Please model this.
Amino acid sequence: MTTEIFGARQKRREDPRFITGQGNFLDDIKLPGMTYAAVLRSPYAHARIKSIDTAAAAAIPGVVAVYTGQDFADVNPLPCAWAAGGVENHLNTPRILAIDTVRWTGDGVAMVVAETPELAADARDVILVDYEPLPVVIDAEKATQPGAPQLHENAPNNICMAWTCGEAEPTAAAIDAAEAVVRQRIINQRLIPNPIETRGSIGRYDPGTDEYTIWMTSQAPHVHRLLIAAFILGVPESKIRCISPDVGGGFGAKIFVYSDMVLTALASKRLNGRPVKFVETRLENYVATTHGRDHITDIEVAGNRDGTITALRVKTFANLGGYVSTIAPGIPTTLYGRMLKGPYTINNVFCEVVGTYTNTAMVDAYRGAGRPEATYVLERAVDMFADEIGMDPAEVRRKNFIPKDAFPYDPGLLTGHSGLKLMYDSGNYEPALDRALAMAGYADLAAAKAEARARGKYLGAGISSYIEICGVAPSKWIGLLGEGWGAGLWESANIRVHLTGKVVVTSGSQNHGQGHETTTAQIVASELGIPYDDVLVEHSDTSGTPFGYGSYGSRSAAVGGIAAVKAAGKIVEKARKLVAHMLEASPADIEFEDGKLFVRGSPDKVKTIQEVALAASVGYDLPEGMEPFLDETAYYDPPNCTYPFGTHVAIVEVDEETGTVDLVKYVGVDDVGKKINPMVVDGQLHGGIVQGVGQALWEGAVYGEDGQLLSGTMLDYALPRASKLPHFELEETVTPSPVNVLGVKGAGEAGTVGSAAAVVNAVVDALSPLGIRHIDMPLSARNVWRAMQDKEARA
Amino acid sequence: MIPTGFAYERPASLDEALAALARGGAGTKVIAGGQSLLPLLKLRVASAERLVDIGRLTELKGIRELPDGGLEIGALSTYAEVRAATRLAFAAEAIEGIGDVQVRNRGTVGGAIAHADPASDLPALALALDYSVVLRSPRGERVMPLDGFLLGAFETAIDPDELIIALRRGPLPDGAAGAYRKLRQPASGFSIVGVAAVVATSGGSIAHARVALTGVGEVAYRAKVVEAALVESDGSPAEIAAAAAHATDGIAVRGDIHADREYRTKMAVVYTRRAIEAALSRSG
Model:
């Protein structure tokens, strides 16, 4: 049951405090007796630590303590919570401070705690470390080759895991039998996530109660508490409280457990309870917080000259960095390989992934997490195949789309090690393609190309038809006996209707920019038929919220939102019994509509939900056995994920002399199912598209062969700028998800999943007169110019 | 992002500032708008034992037209102030491409010249307009052409006790027009290649040509072979292209992760040609 608040373009209630500088972010928190930590990081990508001299640092007045790895030798390394499913994983996770070997530039070596942040930084800089440099490897494929430097004893050839999905032999046979085959190596370059707020933590130990409180920039405070308690510190969860205050974006990088979360807590204990604050600088964020992507992939796509794609075989080297981060192995496996069929009926797909260690920062989930990589592979493959057989790429897509009457559709690949068969829930792909092509003026492309040529430009259009996997769950599918995720992936919500009729919702999910305080309130207001302003949403503090797995995988609406619906349903059921008692009717005869409960056929015999709340709260007259108060908690583990989709089209112009790419038009038709708040969805799509365009055109983390991060500041790491982007023209189709009662699918990552391939396809289309079939990202002026030169040189 | 500690002085007059510099010694740095030095200090790439802040010296502010038709720009004039004052449309365009609004409101032209960043735009613009640098020390004042003052990356001919007090130029030739063309480094916005061209024609041929490049070599430079090839030519596309081909003659071209040496060299030629063509199309 819904009222109009569900689906309304409600302005976000979070925004006034953010816009006016009244947010409460980690670095805003001031505690009595606070101390400040600075971490000394390795300048070498691979080296043995021969000795560390902290005397000069410790002697600076105002320095409270200096710690090295030896001081925490009894503390467990950080845990890995998602090993790749069904295969052996050679896991190596970092210690909170390195003890004898550093494995990437940025690996923590020592930590200073001082009375001020300035003193901590000064003292950090006078710590003397004697390193013995070791050979370095930064490339995910070279790391596996003979003679490569070895990072970990238990991982021969630096291989963490080798994982496959799909059917090898039928795929090989289909490729052999195909009329046309295209082979291409493509690079999905390494990215730096760049949330506007860097990471940090504050640890405070209470000697009186033996309890830790850790404030952290976290997308998943309950998971952080679980992992820190059970796997690192070995104390009960009840002794740790994790609080994630306002968080300025994460894009995945704030899902993971980081050393400082543990270091600040342990240092506070050693300092008899003085709070210890650590906030990373942007420089540290670049070298020490996780990166994303970094795949080297060989593609073979095969099919018939009528446009039917019959087989796709990919082999991917996925760079994991110097160690595995918290969920790193799951990203290039389950969330990548199992999505490689996309929206198409490709009968034979085989994917092999080799996850490797290199002397680089750890790589883990970054917005889209595996699905942008899969979409990029597939959408580049479709375009190259279309080019090979001389068919319009739009027609190749149309030819291979899963037909709308085939849903729910079993792509096969999604059936993982649990044996649970996951099906694409719902879809209708062709209308989105048709509409996007119309919006882009695809039919008039030839004229536009000719007009651009007269100006010294090459114009091109690129299509990307994507599907997404959102609402990532069910626990049985993804968990340990399935895809290897170390726990469950359900979500929770608690609803309390207070005596005044005002409602407090607590959620185990977490809000770091998505607007959950607004959208969750819209759901609950709608379900209970009460004013939106009467619903307060609380989250992100393990004390006072039910356990939940947090925000990532575009799952807060499709999983967390449904938990809120279920909790509201329990409230209504209890209210129904109470109203039946109050009106001397049978509960079966009580109807609920728009916040009112009335006897069927007698709408004048009515109680509002607020009147029921009062009656339940005072408890003067309750039915036999009913507990006072309206307070219900629900846990929701969905039977399936959800599968949004859409088509994006980019139009670019390439300067014939310089290789400079201008994105001149961008259209998208996205289907994210039902929308709780279309304005919030627009924001998610816009930001997501920008991140994909950023990867296509500008961004790239570049390591030198010695393992130094050459793109180590924003002066060299090119983030997208509004001034370089056109207005996005977005439309929608709406195919509700049958998986959940709201029909929602998820929107947090869809834009990123679809956009990079659209832009690259457009540039390659523009340069197709030169015979160019692929250029690796980023499509910087230099890289595009180089590709043009290579073609001219060969011509 | 916290600098190491430093002493801080804010002299109240130019004479006091010069005295403070003269007392100076190693580890003293001058700060004006702070748009280059402060980030370096905060990144701990640079350090200072003592900062002399000249940012509030009103004597070094102001933009004055000179009796001979030339122009003098006080060293503490901000980019935004110069942008507002200039009558040269191409100079305004070039300045609008420097940094962002905050940088242009705080950053000073004297600071930009003294810093001598290899990729900053202002030095190329000033070279093409034949600016000189007015330097003052307790020993007196000297005027030095900018061409020759810029020695290398972050290196100038300034003495440790000297301050840049102004940039000064003479009148431009009749009918002179200019253009600035820039290939932006996508992250920093600095120039991978920035080319300032100023030309004047007389009787159907080019009478005056100044072409200066930034981002390409150690520091901004005048492409004198290009200039010489342009003067007395008819300015045809072929002549311009032939001249522009010498854009990097004698220059050790830089390479970095954004533009390798070969690409930067080729782009120097392309942008030089485009800047000259644009300047010529505007000249009387």
In short: The interface with chain B takes residues 117-118, 121-122, 125, 281-283, 657-658, 660, 697-698, 702, 710-711, 713-719, 724, 780-782, 785-786 of chain A (CB under 8 Å). The two ends of chain A are 66 Å apart (CA to CA). Residues 292-473+640-794 of chain A form a domain with the Aldehyde Oxidoreductase; domain 4 fold (CATH 3.30.365.10).
